[in-house]
């Protein structure tokens, strides 16, 4: 006999899970959200997006005060970083966000069920918590358990000397040296934090470029930017082993294509080669839910698994592992369960790297368009030619817009520059409505703003940029 009955039970309270639960409740469905951790919000709010942005913000301000203020006429004494206060600020930000979800649950009448949720059968979830076990029944179950850091053979994580992003967010002091295994989003963001605060950072990437998968021109620009900021980059390099000592870690490195090995001694190592779906303890096999060869839960176009009434969203399914992608899927999944139709345009989901300058992209890269034999035109505009960027002393980077050669429909946009993550939104909106580069170019943009660079890039698609 079930302890309670629900229309929807969501397992996992990360961005996808809590948003799905709230939307389901808004639609009149009796809803519960199961969370195994003590706080709501999943990886993103607790040990991911939110705390990392807090540290990125603090370290960026520190960097500007230490090195940039004098160039714009501000004279200050050499700043000092107080790690304890910085971490306390980060924790305060996290606490406010996670408690905010609890408030939203109460407001929308979502039941918060604490414990590990296991699907024991279609329509049944067992919750193992501090007070024992209980069982709830649900007409619909949504798996939203997110992802975890991908391990690497020969690298034993202890979250002290060899850390994942979780440990990198809680270091007790600035390491003298930090090796970052993986030149992707997490590696560059967390590497930037500790490099700004004084660590000697070495980024080791198996591929021949930073940010694999992003537009090649973006990767090349970020290589120049990160090198200029003081990071040492070892591209086309693999890590084959790690030996920990009392106060150091010795990494063994080899060329990706084979060759002589070398040693690298550092104080701390950050392992950030990607993330993998988290499905531990879910009971998928017993419930008959299929997963693919990468451990992702298989779903149809309506987020339903092969078992009727069991759905999955977010990092645990196919597609980009992005919080906002999971949120949108959560909303649409809830609406589908409620009998409505939903819509997600996966070609208009932005991706942002919160380094300085930021990187933002949406849609296709030039390499993808070439591979698909799509005829396109590109328009590019440098921040150096933007008045607001000059006034901000932030002139690195560019905006590039890709449009269909025949229809002018925007196919992609790639930005390296200050506030790129905010700027990309207008292009994503244009793409959502099937807009053209001319639509963006003929839209009046306020002056002086960074977004004028977007307009100029759109004008450049047709060869008529004004300010270059």
CATH class of the largest domain: Alpha Beta
The total tally of domains equals 3
**Percentage of β-strand residues:** 25-35%
Q: Summarize model confidence as the mean pLDDT.
A: 97
Helix content: 25-40%
What is the third-level CATH name, the topology of the largest domain? FAD/NAD(P)-binding domain
Q: Low-confidence runs (pLDDT<50, min 5 residues)?
A: none
Per CATH, the superfamily of the largest domain is FAD/NAD(P)-binding domain
Biggest sheet, open or closed, and with what strands and sense?
7 strands, mixed
The end-to-end distance, rounded to whole angstroms, is 72 Å
Described by its quaternary structure, the protein is: single chain
Which of globular, elongated, flat, extended, rod-shaped describes the shape? globular
Gyration radius over CA: 24 Å
Q: Kindly state the number of beta strands.
A: 22
**Helix and strand composition category:** alpha/beta
Q: Which architecture of the largest domain would the CATH scheme give at its second level?
A: 3-Layer(bba) Sandwich
Number of helices: 14
Describe this structure in words.
By secondary structure, the protein is α/β, with parallel strands linked by helices. It has three domains: 4-148 and 276-344, FAD/NAD(P)-binding domain (3-Layer(bba) Sandwich), CATH 3.50.50; 162-273, 3-Layer(bba) Sandwich (FAD/NAD(P)-binding domain); 348-461, 2-Layer Sandwich (Enolase-like, domain 1), CATH 3.30.390.30. Helices cover 32% and strands 26% of the residues. It is globular.
Give me a quick take on this structure.
With 468 residues, the protein is of the alpha/beta class. It has helices at residues 15-26, 42-47, 49-68, 83-108, 165-168, 185-196, 216-228, 284-287, 323-337, 366-371, 387-391, 420-432, 437-441, 452-461, and strands at 4-11, 31-35, 111-114, 116-121, 124-129, 132-143, 147-149, 162-163, 177-181, 200-204, 232-234, 237-244, 249-255, 262-266, 268-271, 275-277, 310-312, 351-353, 358-363, 376-382, 398-404, 410-417. The protein has three domains: 4-148 and 276-344, FAD/NAD(P)-binding domain (3-Layer(bba) Sandwich); 162-273, FAD/NAD(P)-binding domain; 348-461, Enolase-like, domain 1.
């Amino acid at each position: 006999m079930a302890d309670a009955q629900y229309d929807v039970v969501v397992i996992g309270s990360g961005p996808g899970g809590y948003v799905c639960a709230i939307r389901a409740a808004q639609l009149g469905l009796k809803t519960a959200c199961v969370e195994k951790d003590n706080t709501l919000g999943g990886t993103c709010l607790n040990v991911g997006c939110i705390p990392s942005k807090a540290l990125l913000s603090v370290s960026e301000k520190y960097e500007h005060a230490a090195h940039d203020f004098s160039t714009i006429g501000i004279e200050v004494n050499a700043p000092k970083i107080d790690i304890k206060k910085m971490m306390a600020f980060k924790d305060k930000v996290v606490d406010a966000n996670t408690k905010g979800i609890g408030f939203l649950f109460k407001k929308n009448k979502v039941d918060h069920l604490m414990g590990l949720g296991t699907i024991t059968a279609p329509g049944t979830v067992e919750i193992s918590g501090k007070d024992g076990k209980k069982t709830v029944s649900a007409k619909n179950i949504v798996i939203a358990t997110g992802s975890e850091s991908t391990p690497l053979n020969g690298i034993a994580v202890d979250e002290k000397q060899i850390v994942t992003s979780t440990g990198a967010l809680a270091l007790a002091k600035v390491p003298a040296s930090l090796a970052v295994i993986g030149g992707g989003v997490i590696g560059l963001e967390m590497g930037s934090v500790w490099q700004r605060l004084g660590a000697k950072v070495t980024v080791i990437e198996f591929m021949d470029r930073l940010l694999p998968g992003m537009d090649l021109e973006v990767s090349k620009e970020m290589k120049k930017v990160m090198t200029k900021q003081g990071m040492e980059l070892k591209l086309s390099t693999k890590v084959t082993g790690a030996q920990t000592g009392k106060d150091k870690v010795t990494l063994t490195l080899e060329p990706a294509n084979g060759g002589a090995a070398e040693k690298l001694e550092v104080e701390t190592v950050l392992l950030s080669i990607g993330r993998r779906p988290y499905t531990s303890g879910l009971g998928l096999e017993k419930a008959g839910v299929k997963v693919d060869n990468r451990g992702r839960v298989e779903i149809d176009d309506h987020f339903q698994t092969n078992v009727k009434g069991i759905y999955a969203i977010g990092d645990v399914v196919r597609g980009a592992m992005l919080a906002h992608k999971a949120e949108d899927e959560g909303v649409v999944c809830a609406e589908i369960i409620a009998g409505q139709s939903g819509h997600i345009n996966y070609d208009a989901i932005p991706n942002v790297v919160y380094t300085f300058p930021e990187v933002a992209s949406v849609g296709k890269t030039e390499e993808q368009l070439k591979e698909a034999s799509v005829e396109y035109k590109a328009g590019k505009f440098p921040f150096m030619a933007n008045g607001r960027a000059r006034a901000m002393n932030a002139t690195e980077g560019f905006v590039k817009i890709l449009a269909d050669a025949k229809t002018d429909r925007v196919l992609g946009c790639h930005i390296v520059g200050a506030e790129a993550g905010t700027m990309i939104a207008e292009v994503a909106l244009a793409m959502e409505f099937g807009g053209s580069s001319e639509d963006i170019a003929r839209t009046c943009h306020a002056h002086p703003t960074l977004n004028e660079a977007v307009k100029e890039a759109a004008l450049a698609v047709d060869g008529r940029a004004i300010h270059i």
